[in-house]
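Please, structure for the following, as tokens.
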Amino acid sequence: MLKKILIVIGAIVAFFLAYVGTLPGSYSVSRSATIAAPPEAIFTHVNDLHKWDDWSPWAKRDPNAKATFEGPEQGKGAIFKWDGNAEVGTGQMTIEKSEPPKMIEIRLDFHEPFPGTSYASFQFEPKGADATEVTWTLSGNQDYFERLICTVMGLNMDEMIGNDYETGLANLKRVVEAKPS
């Protein structure tokens, strides 16, 4: 009887591990918000990494995080490094592409709590004469072990990141709309 139970448990575990292997290895999470300002007014708050603390959803999670900046003040080559608590971890952002006032692409290198690389992008689409739709996207790859852990824990990237992106865009809207253009 014990042998049959172990065979059934082994088959379930093997099926589950095979299922995880069929899950997509890449992810993409996007959120958008319309902000009552021209693209140029919004672009400066994203293109200058020194201004991220004004609206970033992670800045409030660890106000004591250490931040350092390297490279140019803003735009391509600007680097922001952070070292924070367990909630924000450690890593760095590097602006890899900056096309004022249309788009920004950023490489995110996470060191702790889990090493990995992802890519974020911002698109600024004019909506009429006095508004802009801002779309913030995160994309990357998950290896088999990351997919396994997320599946076991019942997590997915859209749920984990989506709410933070919505909060960040709402903060960006508040900051930009509070300033005269």
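The beta strands are 26-35, 66-70, 79-83, 90-99, 103-112, 116-126, 132-141. The mean pLDDT is 89.
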